[in-house]
């Protein structure tokens, strides 16, 4: 009899993605226009969606801790849920240059077929997709399926596209080109311990020309306690202190600094004239702080119930995405995030596809080379 891993390795990425999206849409009661949603995901996974998953990743994706190139997540709020899919367009060859071409093709598809806008991306594309890229991912793409309204698309760009020593200046230059030069003061203040400890990891853009289209800057915080992150997040206009430390303790059973797997956060900017972010979101790693997914699930359920969020939909989502007993491993739940909206919590749960590993080791550990990044080196390609 074949194991679950052997069975999944023979599936194509497209078939697996379609099954997960269909079951999660049913679990979240977002089945309206399901065929259209499935078509969007199919196009986001072309042509690599026709490949078999295999037993190990041909390209170690930044999307999931185990190298899987697709991640599903659901945002739970008091009166709504959102279903999201994040993918990295797999390259034809395992090189960053090839990954650039795959990413650019996917962006073009989203623009031509689904009305996304790449206007802002074109302003900074040469910074993040240089002629001679360093190793690492080129771009990741996400689609959000809300309970109502149009689908939303966004991209994530790699600050280390021109090398680690240029990552900080690259983000600063990109923000200036986008008209958000005033945001840099907030970013420097936010990373008050220095960029070697509060590392810049992603720049994200909504692929939209809407006046509320967001620019997000993501940080990975090494050896930082939630109480300290909670305080620096006060820089965001909508942040309310006091929620984050209890939330982190509830979902991980851990107090103190997060060392084995660091906390992540982002600052969201909308108005170029405003030097302060409108909101901040914290992302809490789960898989390295639990014995198994049953423990993590119990913690999340308690957290959702205490905040009057739809735990039944979480249960249905987990049932649809898990292919094994929760007690058998710990890799299904990767992160959960917290953001406050008008004083009410919005909690998102991120699930690994576990295509290659059900117990992935910690990822994104601090390296000695990260400790020597100059804050303002000259860019290679401006």
Instruction: State the domain count.
Output: 1
Assign a percent range to the helix content. Answer: 25-40%
Shape: globular
Adjacency order of strands in the biggest sheet: 1-2-3-4-5-6-7-8-9-10
Structure notes:
The protein has 382 residues and is of the alpha+beta class. The chain has one domain. 32% of the residues lie in helices and 20% in strands. It has eleven helices and ten strands. The chain has a ten-stranded antiparallel beta barrel, surrounded by nine helices. A hairpin with a 2-residue loop joins strand 9 and strand 10 (344-352). Helix 2 packs antiparallel against helix 3 (34-44), helix 2 runs antiparallel to helix 11 and helix 9 runs antiparallel to helix 10 (293-306). The longest helix is centred in the first third of the chain and has 19 residues, at 96-114. It is globular, with a radius of gyration of 20 Å. It starts with a helix and ends in a 30-residue tail after the last strand.
Write the layout of secondary structure elements.
Layout: H1 4-9, H2 13-27, H3 34-44, E1 70-76, E2 81-87, H4 96-114, H5 119-128, E3 139-145, E4 152-157, H6 167-177, H7 183-190, E5 198-206, E6 215-221, H8 226-232, H9 244-252, E7 263-269, E8 279-285, H10 293-306, H11 311-321, E9 333-341, E10 344-352
Antiparallel strand pairs: 1-2, 1-10, 2-3, 3-4, 4-5, 5-6, 6-7, 7-8, 8-9, 9-10
């Amino acid at each position: 009899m074949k194991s679950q891993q052997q069975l999944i390795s023979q599936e194509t990425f497209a078939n697996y993605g379609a099954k997960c999206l269909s079951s999660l849409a049913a679990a979240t009661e977002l089945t309206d226009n399901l065929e259209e949603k499935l078509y969007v995901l199919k196009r986001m996974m072309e042509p690599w969606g026709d490949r078999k998953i295999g037993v190990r990743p041909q390209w170690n994706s930044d999307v999931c801790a185990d190298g899987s190139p697709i991640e599903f997540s659901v945002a739970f709020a008091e009166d709504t849920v959102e279903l999201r899919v994040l993918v990295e367009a797999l390259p034809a060859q395992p090189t960053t240059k090839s990954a650039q071409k795959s990413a650019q093709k996917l962006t073009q598809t989203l623009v031509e077929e689904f009305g996304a806008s790449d206007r802002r991306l074109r302003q900074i594309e040469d910074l993040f997709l240089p002629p001679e890229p360093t190793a690492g991912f080129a771009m990741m793409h996400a689609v959000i399926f809300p309970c109502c309204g149009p689908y939303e698309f966004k991209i994530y760009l790699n600050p280390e596209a021109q090398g680690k020593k240029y990552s900080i200046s690259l983000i600063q230059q990109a923000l200036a080109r986008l008209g958000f030069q005033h945001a840099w003061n907030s970013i420097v203040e936010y990373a008050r311990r220095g960029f070697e400890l509060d590392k810049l990891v992603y720049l994200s853009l909504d692929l939209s020309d809407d006046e509320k289209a967001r620019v997000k800057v993501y940080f990975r915080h090494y050896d930082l306690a939630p109480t300290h992150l909670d305080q620096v997040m006060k820089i965001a206009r909508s942040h309310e202190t006091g929620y984050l430390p209890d939330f982190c303790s509830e979902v991980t059973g851990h107090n103190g600094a997060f060392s084995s797997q660091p906390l992540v956060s982002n600052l969201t900017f909308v108005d170029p004239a405003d030097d302060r972010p409108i909101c901040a979101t914290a992302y809490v790693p789960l898989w390295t702080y639990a014995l198994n997914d049953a423990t993590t699930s119990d913690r999340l359920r308690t957290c959702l119930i205490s905040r009057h969020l739809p735990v039944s939909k979480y249960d249905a989502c987990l049932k649809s995405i898990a292919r094994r007993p929760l007690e058998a491993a710990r890799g299904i739940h990767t992160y959960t995030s917290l953001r406050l909206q008008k004083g009410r919590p919005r909690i998102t749960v991120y699930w690994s596809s576990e295509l290659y590993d059900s117990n992935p080791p910690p990822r994104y550990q601090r390296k000695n080379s990260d400790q020597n990044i100059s804050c303002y080196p000259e860019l290679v390609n401006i």
